[in-house]
UniProtKB/TrEMBL annotation, chains A, B:
Keywords: Glycosyltransferase, Hydrolase, Transferase. Pfam families: Glyco_hydro_65C, Glyco_hydro_65m, Glyco_hydro_65N. This is Glycoside hydrolase family 65 protein. Residues 698-759 form the Glycoside hydrolase family 65 C-terminal domain. Belongs to the glycosyl hydrolase 65 family. Transmembrane segments: none annotated. The keyword DNA damage does not apply. InterPro entries: 6-hairpin_glycosidase_sf, 6hp_glycosidase-like_sf, Gal_mutarotase_sf_dom, GH65_N, Glyco_hydro_65_C, Glyco_hydro_65_M, Glyco_hydro_65_N, Malt_Pase/Glycosyl_Hdrlase. GO terms for molecular function: hydrolase activity. It comes from Candidatus Enterococcus murrayae. Residues 13-246 form the Glycoside hydrolase family 65 N-terminal domain. Residues 310-688 form the Glycoside hydrolase family 65 central catalytic domain. The keyword Ion transport does not apply.
Length: 766, 766
């Protein structure tokens, strides 16, 4: 990867290596939240993964599989047959190769010289997915003949519906054909969810004496263009594409014939615009994002600035902001990994960015959880519980649990391992509650609070009430047989993170009930009717003080679970230094790792960070020093938490090391880590490390706190956020910080190092 | 392609070109009738088509598709990662490349030197599909380090269930895992027909200090082997594979757990045998085929001899001789083309070979049609007819019609064209009857005749009786709106081939009824009960003499149909000389070709050949001279018919030209013609051209006729055949021919040039 100080909006790969296609396919993915596409090349390689997804179009390949985002037919495909030879960078000599993504406007450019036998051509590939029109995408290719002899060129370009999700085909083939003698259309339908798709393609060539021929195969339709490219001349082909589906919420008539019409009309209407103009239109939409609370870092290391551009770019292309029935996948829309499913990653890692900078998008994301109450009820019922138990993995909000049951092979037995998360990784329910609470605290969105948030907050507490198990011997309520955030440890009892967050969820509901009864009895009564709150609250009140909260040992260590501290320890240095994190599992299987004090990712530490108000600094420090060395960070969710917590603890050098590692999860030099898609949580983590970690922003018990502290390498940090409708900008210097707020709003009260401040327009704290 | 006089059992490709992988994948396909596999390379290329099929395992991907043979998970896959670089012949320098198939023992060998950076290796790949054990296949690879430095090698070998039929996935993923710490198993199931498959793989390495690692992905399971190959050393890997299914008729318990056991037991039992021994065992089975009626040609052109080896090899690997519920696909088991479906190709083109040389296999093929009566009834009923109307395309015998409804794009409109064959290409019914009649005439199989053939013969006649349409104006019965063998002409009335063969079918049934009533009234009565023959026959008797048989014009030309002769003609020279036959359709669409005197393939001429007893020589000659120039031979079924008919007509030079072209349909230099699979009918045609065309053998009206005539290039032809249980060898010289028959049988009566002969042991005719 090549990054340069001169362009803080560009990520670039120089030189081509077909072994590492997955890297740039993922980290240079394009999208607009409606659709996302890996940046697979126009020509084909055996090592490629050509995936494009439309958010929310979940489908189940078969009864015994879980629903996933189907990989839609590939429209980027263009074969170039040059003097009869299929162009591929694995043949001949490639020079001056650059593949680069402009994060500012979402344009992907790939260019190089290619020599093969007597051929020498310069290729330039440009493409974008429009941020201005969600259905539209486009590709523009220039081929230049660098020789003194004409070169014969055939371009085969169209749409390929033979692609699958690693072998699972989600589509019925559907109709396909030529429309108005000009546009190619293909109309497949998902086999189970019965969502219709309409793909439309038009081509524009700039070349002389072009002959053309249509070609149809099974699930494929192509145009072939034949021409001779004179010496020292160039030709261009523009491919204009659109995708519509029958669940689109921006069209009113979902009849397939109407959708086809809509797509054709749009194509026709756009004929008057050039590629450049349509790219420009999209770039303007991107500007709106970049103008909202830009982050500026004066740093010794320009990659820090690039990293936040990279993170925000991806956070926006992956987020289906247009539809509250959809949420963010753990790999965004950039790969088949995790099947497009939504995890706790949303609430804990990505939502904070939206809460603080795009509250309208955050609202859509939390509304998804409100719409998911039915699914959560279904899951609770299936497991013998009450209330709302959120699914570990979520697809359509009402689906309930969609975690697959079987995973990869166990190295010792060779058998597939059972994925227990869908059954027993139960902290997701309090994570969702936590996310909702943060949303309402940050935005002050009263309407959402009353209409939706309260219900979630009570209904999840109701679940926890039914989940608690009474231990007669110890006279307390405990939570046995779970997986905490540390997924190496399956079937543990009283995972600290789970128990503390469940306790918080219950306590919060009890307090809320008290407050509502007093100040808004009408709302309380409505919810009481719906959720039988009187009974639920009475039950919770009986139990809450007896919920077992794992207490610190004499050394001040909060036990991760009942058995963790009694397990043996090994030196993890060897595994922590390596690229990729599966080294450990070449030596041990999951069962063996289960029996050692090895932690995959922040677990107790995450608790200390998210609920920092509950724990004294000294305890945080001790636990950080105990657990970090035992943590492999074998989850992209781990490093950012450690970066923030160590920054909180004043360990700024250590924190900055975590920060840099965390930024490199996708952007770094390790070329295989992003194959299955980018790491959405980690990208949210980049923003959090900057704004929460170094910017010092936090919501604690409903109160805003700002305590910045810059790492050595940084001279100055500027960031901004929305808070209760107010737009605030913070400039952090080596010493002190300065806040400004637009003129016309309300005062903002916040805390800093124990002091309360009121921000009217401008405030300096030194 | 490279063929050498010194080895008449070898087809070879020298030099590698990834554009033409399809050619050798098809023509060097391996198989044993139970399974067939394209010879795709171990390593991957974007232009490959990796197909393996198990006969009869039809499945429907979706309700709106027709059933097809599913492409089963790929077991040949082996990646070689050499010094970290994925081996591919598109990289580096390849020399001494040879890919060759030994037709005699079914062994495929590929070898070459490969240089890349500091690497220089010699690779040898050998594989076979066992003819001795239908479930077993094996691969043996040798890698030799040709340099002075050690080379690091990783072999990734296993099974890939991500393959599809051009995007349609027929399998549920199923379980997979390691068994006994040694064998890989994968157990997918077809999604609609619910056939279980069990794939088992074992590896044997001969290399030093090998470390290994299992790897599982979605629908994939691999073993990885890592070792260093010392300078000037070699290593080998043997891959042992088996396939079982729950419809196998050689195992009794079809429980998946039992099948798994069976597969593992076989693998374990075979451990004592080497690759060579198992190949030898298979070769011995092949010997039995080669020893049965070998064809020897003394010719100026050694490729003639090679061609018949090639044809017989493929006829045997494609034919599911083990199961009468299965038949031969139009592409055998060598490609996705025609979905594994059975057409009239079986009866008219492949069955004759089996009738005359492997009557037990022929019996299985005609029994398939007997088992297909239910499907034929279903089709007749659906179309408003009675009796047995055979499907144009057949899968499982009871399925009835499985022709897809939509085909490739029309060049003018860009829309998919409707495939009418399943509806109106009705001559298939008399083709089946013709095949059955030939079978019983050649073999004298009395049991089949009584138990099955009579029923087919009557039931098809019953269909024709219901199909005939009365023309009041002309007072005759006609057959309107059909497609004859010439598929360019859709919706024609009174296609000569269709009307004549229907008339023959009806006439034959009437005669048979008369004979049975007289000599075997019991059988007649049984069939009468079953088929209501009294009514049917009365109806047929009323109609038979009024069936319209298109009569020759004054010029002696039998009109192909009512309108053909009035259509305009064009000069076809341009299209006939080209490789590939789609040139015509770049200039005209099917609708336009419909309006011209252009014929795809033998139509009237096929009639004159198959029912030669009905037409005088002079008429054949005139029609040959009229129709051949109008025929594009845009069907692999055309050339052999023309070769035989022209040989019959004494046009031996012309015939030999057709012969050579026909042999080259798959074996020739045109590298794209076999992409979708070999041309099964054309391969049967090769045998027919030799034995029927030049050997002069024919069954006419139930009588054996032998009238040989050699082309100029041939000095001598030796062939043999079975006839009514007798084994006959014929040696044809430039002048005259000699017949021998094994000692201990019955006399054989035959005709030759109007004379009747009786063959006891030996007979010379000069």
């Amino acid at each position: 990867m090549n990054y340069v100080k001169e362009n803080l909006w560009q990520i670039e790969e120089v030189g081509f290596d077909s072994r590492y296609l997955g890297k740039t396919e993922s980290i240079m993915a394009l999208g607009n939240g409606y659709l996302g596409s890996r940046s697979a090349t126009e020509e084909h390689y055996t090592t490629e993964r050509r995936d494009t997804f439309v958010a929310g179009t979940f489908n189940k390949f078969a009864e015994n599989e879980v629903s996933e985002l189907p990989n839609i037919p590939d429209m980027w495909w263009m074969d170039f047959i040059i003097n009869g030879e299929i162009f591929s960078l694995e043949k001949g000599i490639t020079s001056n190769f650059s593949k680069r993504l402009n994060l500012k406007n979402g344009e992907l450019i790939r260019e190089f010289d290619w020599e093969f036998a007597t051929i020498k051509l310069h290729f330039t590939f440009r493409r974008f997915v429009s941020k201005a029109r969600r259905h539209y995408l486009s590709s523009f290719v220039t081929v230049e003949n660098l020789t003194d002899i004409p070169i014969s060129i055939q371009i085969r370009s169209g749409i390929d519906g033979q692609v699958t999700n690693s072998g699972s085909q989600h589509f019925h083939e559907g109709e396909k054909g030529l429309v108005n003698g000009k546009y190619i259309q293909m109309m497949p339908q998902t086999n189970e969810s019965e969502i219709d798709f309409v793909f439309t393609i038009g081509h524009r060539l700039n070349a002389k004496n072009v002959s053309e021929r249509i070609e149809m195969g099974r699930r494929q339709i192509f145009m072939n263009y034949f021409f001779d490219l004179p010496s020292n001349n160039s030709a261009t082909i523009e491919k204009r594409m659109s995708v519509y589906t029958s669940i689109d919420n921006d069209i009113s008539d979902h009849e397939i014939s109407e959708i086809r019409e809509t797509a054709i009309s749009e194509m026709e209407a756009l004929e008057v615009f050039s590629f450049e103009e349509l790219l420009q239109e999209s770039a303007e939409k991107w500007s709106e994002i970049w103008e909202k609370h830009p982050i500026e870092i004066e740093t010794e290391n320009f990659k820090d600035q690039l990293a936040i551009h990279f993170a925000k770019y991806h956070l926006h292309i992956m987020t289906p902001a247009h539809n509250e029935h959809m949420n963010i996948g753990a790999k965004g829309l950039s790969g088949e990994g995790y099947k497009g499913h939504t995890f706790w990653d949303t609430e804990i890692f990505m939502l904070p960015y939206f809460n603080f900078t795009h509250p309208e998008i955050a609202k859509s994301l939390v509304t998804y959880r409100y719409l998911g109450l039915d699914g959560a009820h279904k899951k609770a019922r299936n497991n013998g519980y009450e209330g709302a138990q959120y699914p570990w993995e979520a697809a359509n909000p009402t689906d309930g649990e969609v975690t697959p049951v079987w995973g990869a092979a166990d190295i010792v037995t060779g058998q597939s391992t059972k994925i227990w998360s869908g059954f027993i990784e139960q902290h997701i329910t309090s994570d969702v509650t936590f996310g909702v609470k943060q949303y309402i605290d940050v935005t002050g969105d009263q309407e959402f609070t009353e209409q939706k948030a309260y219900e979630i907050l009570f209904d999840t507490a109701k679940f926890w009430g039914s989940r608690l198990e009474y231990n007669t011997e110890k006279d307390y309520y405990e939570i046995k047989d779970v997986i905490g955030p540390d997924e190496y440890k399956e079937h543990v009892n009283n995972n600290a993170y789970t128990n503390y967050t469940a306790h918080w969820n219950v306590t919060y509901a009890l307090n809320l009930a008290k407050e509502l009864k007093e100040h808004d009895p009408e709302t309380f009564e409505r919810l009481n009717q719906k959720l039988e709150l009187d009974n639920v609250l009475a039950d919770l009140a009986r139990k809450v003080d007896k919920i077992f909260l794992p207490q610190p040992t004499d050394e001040g260590i909060i036990p991760q679970d009942d058995s963790y501290l009694s397990k043996k320890t090994i030196d993890l240095t060897k595994y922590k230094s390596k690229d990729g994190v599966d080294g450990l599992f070449h030596d041990y299987n999951l069962e063996q790792v289960n029996e050692m004090q090895i932690t995959k990712q922040a677990d107790v530490l995450l608790l200390l960070y998210l609920f920092e108000g509950l724990f004294p600094r000294e305890m945080k420090l001790k636990n950080f020093e105990y657990y970090e060395p035992k943590t492999t960070h074998d989850s992209s969710l781990s490093l950012s938490t450690h970066a923030i917590l160590s920054a909180d603890l004043g360990k700024l050098d250590e924190s900055y090391e975590f920060f840099e590692k965390a930024c490199n999860i996708d952007m770094g030099e390790y070329m295989k880590s992003s194959d299955d898609g980018i790491h959405a949580g980690s990208l949210g983590g980049i923003w959090q490390m900057i704004v929460f970690g170094y910017g010092g922003v936090r919501m604690i018990d409903g109160k805003l706190r700002i305590e910045p502290h810059l790492p050595k390498a940084w001279n100055k940090l500027t960031y901004g956020f929305d808070y209760h409708g107010e737009s605030i900008t913070v400039v952090v210097m080596k010493e002190g910080f300065e806040l400004t707020k637009e003129d016309n709003g309300n005062d903002v009260v916040f805390f800093s190092n124990g002091e309360a401040y009121t921000l009217k327009n401008k405030l300096s704290i030194l």
